[in-house]
Design brief:
By secondary structure, this protein is α/β, with parallel strands linked by helices. The chain is 40% helix and 18% strand. α14 packs across α16. It is globular, with a radius of gyration of 27 Å. The N and C termini lie far apart (82 Å).
Length: 570
């Protein structure tokens, strides 16, 4: 059979990522593409007919209006002359893609429009203008649906006919068999070099926990694991492609500790030059697992959410602060990079409680804090309990809580300003190495410090960017220095200011050399070896005993790691 006589049905699978980054790589849509292509290669539709799925990942054009985006995407899809269209719907893209579907339906009503993804599974897209909604994992259900539609050749415009053989609008898909699913990386659907040389990596699906704010809260309370042979092959692929960083997508990487340790050993063996990001539960950490993490380049993100047991109980979580701190101490002692997630607006919480959670989190020396306003997501237990708990939240994306009986709208806005300031100063500012040293002389809690920073920004008429990745660390550091000068302006603290600013500048330069490969010229009032010693963590003691010595130094990446050298003695 010649290529010219072969009829090809093209099926674009369209999505819009939340941002342009490895963390937002369209893994879900790519997995559907790989599954469709494998299905129709293994079992062709007909001898002279082929079905080809194609990933269409649209960059998020933030400067365009919703209608401008929708019209542009619809035009792009229609140019492909598709036999059917699939859409992967998330909180951030559902509204736009629903409008795209409406435009296409008006122009070519015979094209089947299929939607899947979290918004569909949650029931949020029930009224959207798609012909078919696939709830659950679509790797097997979508190819089966396409096969039925393309074989019978009926137009979806005939769906209203009594004798129509078309499938139901809503299709509930059981969990796919992980043993049979093709890898979107190994099949060539995804190329990490197109996503800033990074990747999302799916090792398992599902979560054994039932947090009320999460999509998994009403799903299967089990975890389905991908085969180890696939994991080995993907690791070899990542190493060959020299992928610089990988975000492991599993909601709880360490749900099964023995497997987690085994994969960490594989990573050390096959991809020692790649940096990995994991999401973990602190209560499941143990010395063996922490030791395995310490042997690779990685960071851990841990869902603390709140430090208040009475708040966590309402969302099916718990915390023993002493035990939690003991687990985190294992990470600190091993020198592992880690961060916490905190949510404000949880039922039963208030502004004072959110500040308490910030203080507890910072006391454990995390490298970063990610702070989020609660989203009352359709399909979650919390959504079902919304009225009972008095949660006021819109029925449209992104479903952010507007008020609760304990957390007024005004206080939620204050919490949002505090969250943004904390993230900017502490996380974006890479402050963990010096923050407690500078906080101690001020005799205040972290949350009070960050509240003062909010007030300082307002007084100075400074607006920090909503999307903080748009600013460089050097820009954040300049603002940190300005605020610390403000806080240390009293006669009692002014003598500590040279050491305080040296600490910020020196540690900042080291972080940029390590993380960004950047070279920095510095003028210091104290010797770097003294500033990097444990004594600098007590500024009053340090300034009393350390000798001042004006130095010009250069901090830069070196062959053996980050290094500094003296440029000129003044």
């Amino acid at each position: 059979m010649s290529c010219k006589s072969m009829k090809t049905h093209l099926v674009p699978v369209c999505t819009i990522p939340a941002e342009i980054s490895p963390q937002a790589l369209p893994l879900g849509a790519a997995s559907i593409v790989a599954a469709i292509n494998k299905s129709f290669v293994d079992k062709p539709l007909a001898p002279a007919v082929s079905v080809e799925a194609r990933l269409v990942s649209i960059p998020p054009e933030f400067h365009l209006s919703l209608e401008e985006k929708a019209q542009a995407i619809a035009a792009q899809l229609l140019k492909l002359q598709p036999a059917a269209l699939c859409f992967s719907l998330f909180v951030w893209n559902r509204t736009v893609l629903a409008r795209v579907a409406a435009i296409i339906q008006e122009k070519l009503p015979e094209i089947p429009l299929i939607a899947g993804g979290p918004e569909v599974t949650a029931g949020a897209a029930d009224t959207d203008p798609f012909h078919y909604l696939v709830c659950g994992e679509g790797d097997e259900a979508v190819p089966a649906l396409l096969r039925q539609l393309l074989q019978q050749g009926d137009s979806v415009a005939d769906a209203s006919k009594a004798d129509s053989n078309l499938p139901p609008r809503k299709i509930f898909s059981p969990r796919a068999n992980q043993e049979n699913l093709p890898s979107p990386y190994l099949t060539g659907v995804l190329n990490p070099t197109e996503y800033q040389n990074g990747a999302l990596w799916e090792l398992a699906r599902g979560c054994p926990f039932k947090c009320a704010y999460c999509y998994e809260s009403k799903g299967e309370k089990t975890v389905a694991y991908f085969p180890m042979e696939r994991i080995r092959q993907e690791l070899d692929f990542f190493a060959k492609q020299k992928v610089s960083q990988i975000f492991v997508l599993d909601p709880t990487y360490n749900a099964k500790k023995e497997r987690a340790v085994e994969i960490l050993k594989l990573i050390r063996q096959k991809a020692p030059n790649t940096f990995f990001h994991f999401e973990c539960r602190a209560e499941l950490l143990n010395p063996e697992l922490v030791a395995a993490f310490s042997r690779i380049s990685c960071s851990l993100q841990i869902g603390l959410q709140s430090a208040r047991p009475e708040v966590l109980k309402l969302v099916a979580r718990s915390i023993n602060r002493k035990e939690f701190a003991g687990k985190i101490a294992l990470l600190n002692n091993a020198g592992i990079i880690f961060g916490f997630d905190l949510i404000y607006g949880l039922p039963g919480d208030n502004l004072a409680g959110f500040k308490e959670s910030i203080d507890y989190a910072i006391s454990l020396y995390p490298n970063s804090l990610e702070l989020f306003r609660l989203s009352v997501l359709p399909g979650t237990t919390l959504f079902d309990q919304k009225q009972e708990l008095g949660l006021v939240a819109p029925a449209t994306p992104p479903y952010l809580v507007e008020s609760t009986p304990q957390f007024s709208a005004k206080d939620l806005d204050k919490a949002e300003a505090l969250a943004r300031a904390t993230s900017y100063f502490y996380s974006r500012g890479r402050a963990v190495s010096w923050f407690h040293a500078l906080l101690k002389p001020l005799r205040c809690s972290p949350s009070v410090f960050f509240t003062r920073f909010v007030d300082f920004l307002a007084t100075e008429n400074i607006t920090i960017p909503a999307i903080q990745d748009d600013c460089s660390h050097k820009e954040v550091e300049l603002l940190q220095l300005k605020f610390i000068q403000n806080q240390y302006s009293s006669p009692k603290l002014k003598s500590l200011l040279p050491a305080a600013t040296d600490l910020i500048k020196l540690n900042g330069a080291f972080s940029r050399a390590y993380a960004d490969g950047e070279r920095t010229n510095l003028s210091l009032s104290f010797h770097p070896d003294d500033l990097l010693s444990p004594y600098s963590q007590d500024l009053a003691f340090f300034c009393q005993h350390a000798q001042k010595t004006k130095l010009h130094i250069v901090v830069q990446p070196g062959k053996g790691g980050t290094e500094w050298r003296q440029a000129k003695k003044v």
